[in-house]
Amino acid sequence: MNKEKFNHSIDNIDIPLEKLVAREKAAMLQAKKRRKIGRTTRNSLLIACGLCMTLLGSGFVSTGMAAALSNIPLIGPIYAQFSDIASDKIQEDQLTTEIEKQDSQNGLTMTVKEAVYDGGRLIVTVEYTGQKKLSLSEETVGINYITINGQSVKPAIGSTGQDAIDSKTIIEHHQFTLSNPNEYGDKIEVAVHGENLFGYKGKWNVAFPLEKVDGAIHEFYPKVKTKITDKDYAITADKVIFSPLSTRIDLTIDYPAAMDENDTWPWFDFEVVDDKARVFDRLKLQAGMAGDYGHHMVLVLPPMDELPHSLTIKPAEINKDGKREDMKELELVIPFNKK
Asked: Which residues contact 18 (CB under 8 A, 6 or more apart)?
């Protein structure tokens, strides 16, 4: 199948966008409220909030998509269907590295198809094929995870999602925004681990080296701040990084210390607007936190070839009915001195 026909098959897939976004927001609020049950569990809950988990775990791969996937050697274009934040850039610049390494055990083959890493984000695509039917039921999915340099990944934002291509083939998408950019360096060792997957007993492991993708990285440290006195809230823009796989904004959120103690700290719903009035929200913005509670928040937008003159951060609170209530006093303009 040629690229034109493949893209046409993607365009014909109907995704219930409103329900998708509503589910993501509900999951994020649920994760926030469960913060007290521990750091490891908190990270897992945030991973489950990612857009890819919401999308991939919902059975959106159509017959046309399955046919397309079965006829292309690499699956980079599938990121558009999965709504990855960098899908357009990945396709246009062919950023992914072909891996094609596999491990076969007891009738199931795990194949890492491709991956891409820019120091701040890591994306890995995996395919599973079985001699018999594969099941996505909760009782049989099993356990899988990714390590970098032998360490479990603790992301600010992440997701793992799976969907069936046919009865014997499952595609899996992992994406991570790392808590600390460049903490692993330019060359990393990635491993995909699996245990008792999709009704098959056994352990699988595929390890491979991966280098940082070529591309310009621009870092800014604006240190601009806004605050609202009646609630004792403040937001500071600490760092903005433009990289091949994302536009990352690190924010410090200040609020009364008592809100940490009684677990009522605010998780704002963010919208970002650039100087050309382009709005980044919904599927064009991901949010997570890199530290305890909600003090260090990370926003991720799609990568930008042309750096904007400014970005405006627009926070809102979500009321008990799940609706946005804009907080105009906390809007923050981040200017960029491109020199």
From this structure: none
Q: What is the mean pLDDT of each run of 10 residues along the chain (339 residues)?
A: 38 40 42 36 34 34 44 54 78 88 96 94 94 82 91 89 84 92 94 93 96 94 90 94 96 91 87 96 90 89 94 91 88 86
Question: How far apart are alpha carbons 27 and 84 in whole angstroms?
Answer: 18
Give the whole-angstrom CA distance, residue 213 versus residue 68.
26
Last residue of a domain, one of 165, 181, 211: 211
Domain count, the chain: 2
The answer to whether 205 and 276 are in contact (CB under 8 A) is no
Cβ neighbours of residue 64 under 8 Å, at least 6 residues apart? Answer: 9, 12, 13
Looking at the fold, whether 247 and 314 belong to one and the same domain comes out as yes
17/137 same-domain check: yes
Of the candidates 211, 229, 244, which is a domain's last residue? 211
Q: How far apart are CA 256 and CA 260, in angstroms?
A: 8
Tell me, yes or no, if the pTM score tops 0.85. no
pLDDT at position 33 is 37
